[in-house]
Fold this protein.
Amino acid sequence: MFYVFMFLPPPEDTLMTTTVTQPTPTQAPKKSLQIWLDGKLVDKADAKVSVYDHGLLYGDGVFEGIRVYNGKIFECEGHIERLYASARAIRLEIPISKQEMKAAIEQTFRANGFVDCYIRAVVTRGVGDLGIDPRKSPKPSVFIISDLIAVYPKEFYEKGIAVITASVIRNHPNACSPRVKSLNYLNNILAKIEANDAGVMEAVMLNHEGNVSECTADNLFIVRDGTVLTPTTYDGILEGVTRKVMIGLCKKVGVPCVEKTLQRHDLYVADEFFLTGTGAEVMPVTMIDKRQIGSGQVGPITKKLIDAFRQHIREA
Ligand code: PMP
């Protein structure tokens, strides 16, 4: 669950100081939020898709969640490449080029006066009939939202969060691959409901073999004996853009990082544990399934990597 704040800045204490995404008064949208919808900017109230759109009827579509820091799309190429790769995997032809997509994203956040914000870019199969056949949906729809986001309260970044292991598993790679960022997040939503029921913020999802994949909306990393470990692409994960940045940052700060199949036990005995994602950025985990991680405090390597990430987004 994340909280999206419209126009009004979120309360100061809900944001990390280094990832402040609320606009200053000069950035604040003066008129209705503008949404990019099939080539045009429209008021939020007019940004509507049909109830016959297969994105809604069947979750048939793909999307990206992207950050803009200091007026620049963070890891633009990585996000755009993943969006088009996801679309290709589900045989969905995005009706605009990658360059046009980038220009449309820029047009959207600039039209709203944002300098730091979150972007949601969505491509749906488009309007069809009530059957599932995508051939009946000849015109995919594209829309882009720019808005403010605060995924977790600030103190969680300092103290870490508790997570559980969900009973519901991540998609089998030969179903719709977890590498496709599709509009169908139901497995993840079911796992999130388990987290909600347990009173924790996130759930770790295992894969069809019982190995660790990722959390409902974030990739995961652990630290053991000074080495950072993260599940491989083949363990049923979304190939996170932030994950890739983090692997690069480990190298930069001189901490060994290995992509490796992990079991739940590896999480239980980890010295440190953290999550990465566009929305959450880098979030420490200090408890899993009621087992304390390391000292129960945010560990030194996690702290170092959070600092490196903050510096990276300032310089990017
Ligand atoms: N896994 C899942 C299931 C996600 O939805 C996300 C995006 N929130 C991530 C991982 C993290 O990916 P990224 O760093 O590209 O945001």
